[in-house]
Automatic annotation (TrEMBL):
One protein family per Pfam: PadR
Gene3D superfamilies named in the record: Winged helix-like DNA-binding domain superfamily/Winged helix DNA-binding domain (1.10.10.10)
Phylogenetic placement of the source organism: Bacteria, Bacillati, Actinomycetota, Actinomycetes, Streptosporangiales
Species of the source: Nonomuraea composti
Span of the signal peptide: none
Classification via InterPro entries: Tscrpt_reg_PadR_N, WH-like_DNA-bd_sf, WH_DNA-bd_sf
Full protein name: PadR family transcriptional regulator
Amino acid sequence: MSLRHALLAMLTAEPMTGYELVKYFDGSVAYVWSAPHSQIYPELRRMERDGLVDVEIVPRGEHAKKRIYSINEAGLEEFQRWIRELTPYQPERDVYRLKAAHFEQSTYEAARRQMQEHLNHYTRALQIWKQVLDDVDNRRVSLLRERLAQRPQEEHEAIVAFRKLTFRGQIAKARMEIQWAKEGLALLDELESKGVPLRGEP
């Protein structure tokens, strides 16, 4: 997935300014696709250049102006092309497993610190994703409400169901990572209690 497709996905709900796209990006898409704000505005300009969005320039206050982006037919075709095509799976690049596989080169303190941070990170993520799932289920996500308002009633069930599927997957992932971190911490405790040396220890 590219930032371009993430932005097109949001514009299928309604036209938005760059500021609104950044705001909604942080509140929805960023949970599954992270991108810094500094990349969003240049990508919008490229999308405009490539004919995927239409832009309306309107006044903002007395002297300023703002650009409102809306997906056009070419942009919708590009998004639908991307959503239909099979996305190949990328080779794994998991720095956390790579480090864990070589903890014997570390110290118990450093290894335990890494596993504890993994546990903390996914514990926080689990709470966030559970809250997002609840917000989707109860229609508290503003962009979702806008999308539902723009689409026929008969499409609403699928729109909500696919978003719930996404966040249930994130919840399952977080729970698996939490369990893995707990197993790692328990293993470190066991090895250390047996006096098993690590090469990185003084």
